[in-house]
């Protein structure tokens, strides 16, 4: 960029100086031409004055003497006179040079007839001055272009110094070295918006890189246990002869572990799409209370086995993806069923808010510690791993709820006060806002 700017600067200087010098030369040449024309006019008036001068010496010989005396005092003038098509006087140019000629006609007084006067003016000195001026201006253009280009290149180099400093600062950022945000105030005002955007980009990349590392570590940890179980059970069964029934039971057990791992992989793929900032392409108006009733109906058998009841309180309509919202509600209800006290009621509360709708699932059970509330929506996090059946769940249910909420432009929340735990999420736009946006 420095070379390109310097070349453009030199080209601009060359064109500018050339136009300026051409204007100076043109004005000077025009002034010389005007001066020569005025002098020719003056000499023509003098010549006609001599031709019209009365007196005894008005014959041809006397007139010739007058004109010769006139030319002797004006050596830079040449004169030729014709009267009625006949040349009566002619004085050739005294020397070679750049002569300017002009023709004048006038009727002499006293019946002298029409006279044509051809006057030449020696402009050699003016031509010499113009030639010197032309070379001087050309030299000035070349020298001025070189000087201005040199100083321009130095100024461009100095002006681009902040960019080189910025490039040097950014080159220090590597995956193995934690990056420090570049201080925008250290650079010029024009670079500060770019630096701010670069800092935001680097922060996002670091966050994504950290999430990827943590996610891969968690996935490896979660898949290691079922894979180890599969390998161990297969080695035990293959250590000695087994009946077909035993092998059938082994395959059923392995199939259950494989399905569990398949569920982990499917949930991982879903969360990876949410992490890329994927939003919903289609959102249809739907009644949230109807979706909640459908989810409770799906979990009806689990509720009966756990001795629980489920109710829906409130109503709201929002633009949403029905299948995803049902999945989030199902995860919340399933989580509440696992931890709710027997003979209690699981409440699905729905209400409209200024910025959308809010859905929450409440259950009575053991309280959740404040430090655990902040981590409920983390991947592979289990609040109470010692509870019965916790090994059957891989800790991605609430993380999926958080992803679905973000895909709807909302957020998740969790509260635990006494025996009541309330976990839910919001949806960004109500039906009125969705309809207005569609229109």
UniProtKB/TrEMBL annotation:
One of its GO terms (cellular component) is plasma membrane. Its EC number is 2.7.13.3. Residues 218-435 form the Histidine kinase domain. It is an enzyme of class 2 (transferase). Pfam families: HATPase_c (PF02518), HisKA (PF00512). Keywords: ATP-binding, Cell inner membrane, Cell membrane, Kinase, Membrane, Nucleotide-binding, Phosphoprotein, Transferase, Transmembrane, Transmembrane helix, Two-component regulatory system. InterPro entries: CztS_silS_copS, HAMP_dom, HATPase_C_sf, HATPase_dom, His_kinase_dom, HisK_dim/P_dom, HisK_dim/P_sf, Sig_transdc_His_kin-like_C. Gene3D superfamilies: 1.10.287.130, Histidine kinase-like ATPase, C-terminal domain. GO terms for molecular function: ATP binding; phosphorelay sensor kinase activity. It catalyses: ATP + protein L-histidine = ADP + protein N-phospho-L-histidine. Residues 157-210 form the HAMP domain. The chain crosses the membrane at residues 135-156. It is found in: Cell inner membrane. Member of a two-component regulatory system. PANTHER family: SENSOR HISTIDINE KINASE YKOH (PTHR45436), SENSOR PROTEIN (PTHR45436:SF9). This is Sensor protein.
